Amino acid sequence: MRLSRSLLPTLKETPAEAQIVSHRLMLRAGLVRQTASGIYAWLPAGYRVLHNIARIVREEQDAIGAQELLMPTIQPAELWRESGRYEGYGKEMLRIRDRHDRELLYGPTNEEMITDLFRQSVRSYRELPQSVYHIQWKFRDEVRPRFGVMRGREFLMKDAYSFDIDQAGAVLSYRRMMLSYMRSFQRLGLQAIPMAADTGPIGGDLSHEFIILAPTGESQVFFDAAFEEIDYSQGGFDARSPEDLARFYGLMTSHYAATDEKHDAAAFAALAPERRREGRGIEVGHIFYFGTKYSRAMNFSVTTADGSSVHPEMGSYGIGVSRLVGAVIEASHDEAGIIWPDAIAPFRAALLNLKPGDAACDGLCESLYARLGGAALYDDREERAGVKFNDADLLGHPWQIIVGPRGATAGKVELKRRASGAREELSPEAALAKILG
Ligand code: 5CA
């Protein structure tokens, strides 16, 4: 992308309405703009990040055999009357009437709709277990939307649903999903910790929140340093093996981890001092096992091997995809701006032409830009070098290739790594190899 032709409105001033650093940086870097309270438009660079996060979440859902589908944002009220949640959900639900005076709602979550889709076509135990997911916009009319995309009213969620024939199967689905979550967060460069949680309006009696550490998080959290050492991508956990899932779940639940609401000071104090960790946390995911709550209320049953029938056991599993954009920034920034993890950066590199109009600079930049393709944001604007440096740091590309007239003539560029600030002068070929390698 050429910056001179991009909708990438960076701001020098700190927007007064933004209270936390990720919100400030998302506005300053031109990633989002608010269109109504708690509702945001994703501008091109922000949308690329959202898309990259969704891709990683999708890959890790696919890897455990969950099937992707897409349910609508607008749902009929009747389905929610069946489960009893139409009244129960309260003012957070946005209720709508169409021209025929039929009651609709903008979905805050999809347990009812997915139960309805399964009961229409799944009849036998032979068709289970199954897990499905979608990545879709939700609406919750939050009393106090705040912190930008962290607590929005319209937000993007990955929500998955599992259907099993019995509780033993449902427990495996729950654990498998937890493993997929830990792998997703690790790939996003985040250290997430599962913590036992309340189930709220979703219901059920087993649930975990996934908390990532960030100084501006909403809750105080306490945990065992053991969580810092586990590598979920390795670890030898096979998501198809019940034994591996039991070992993984044991690892997740046998070390101390709690938010302040559930904190047990005595249990925490029993840890060796060097293993005690304490900080602020943001909830980026939440998983629930609620048994037959919806299948029973909505009259969904399947036949079993012995000819009787049962209500399938269900769970639901959410990741706040749009919230993650803010959460990653909370966890990874400095005074100059965002520091994107390589896996989700909108662009791998900024290509800074320090002297547009200079034949050597233009020539070298054009050839580098052609080689980098979509991986680069080419700053070809007629701006001072200082403005370009500041914007590149603000936008947080993992790499910056800096092309000035002296270097261009000598066949050299400067390569800066945003995270460490390390700079080196090298040939254009060597710089490309580092960025694309
Ligand atoms: N049906 C279940 C699981 S699919 C559910 O809705 N769970 S939830 O309410 O906990 O939401 C899942 C995730 O969505 C949360 O962990 C959080 O990361 C994100 N989320 C929830 N509310 C908001 C909001 N107002 N703004 C941004 N993200 C949100």
List the SSEs and their pairings.
Blueprint: H1 21-28, E1 32-36, E2 39-42, H2 44-63, E3 67-68, E4 74-76, H3 77-83, H4 85-88, E5 94-97, E6 103-106, H5 111-121, E7 130-139, E8 154-164, H6 167-187, E9 192-196, E10 206-213, E11 219-224, H7 242-254, E12 257-259, H8 265-269, E13 276-291, H9 293-297, E14 302-303, E15 309-310, E16 313-320, H10 321-331, E17 333-334, E18 337-338, E19 349-353, H11 359-372, E20 376-379, H12 385-395, E21 399-403, H13 405-410, E22 413-417, E23 423-426, H14 428-436
Parallel strand pairs: 3-7, 19-20, 19-21
Antiparallel strand pairs: 1-2, 4-6, 5-6, 7-8, 8-16, 9-10, 10-13, 11-12, 11-13, 13-16, 14-15, 17-18, 21-22, 22-23
Helix pairs in contact: 1-10, 2-6, 2-10, 6-7
Bound molecules: 5'-O-(N-(L-cysteinyl)-sulfamoyl)adenosine.
5'-O-(N-(L-cysteinyl)-sulfamoyl)adenosine binds next to strand 8, strand 13, strand 16 and helix 10.
Describe this protein with a few key phrases.
437 residues; alpha+beta; BirA Bifunctional Protein, domain 2; Rossmann fold; nine-stranded mixed β-sheet; five-stranded mixed β-sheet; 14 helices; globular; binds 5'-O-(N-(L-cysteinyl)-sulfamoyl)adenosine
Kindly summarize this structure in a few lines.
33% of the residues lie in helices and 27% in strands. With 437 residues, the protein is of the alpha+beta class.
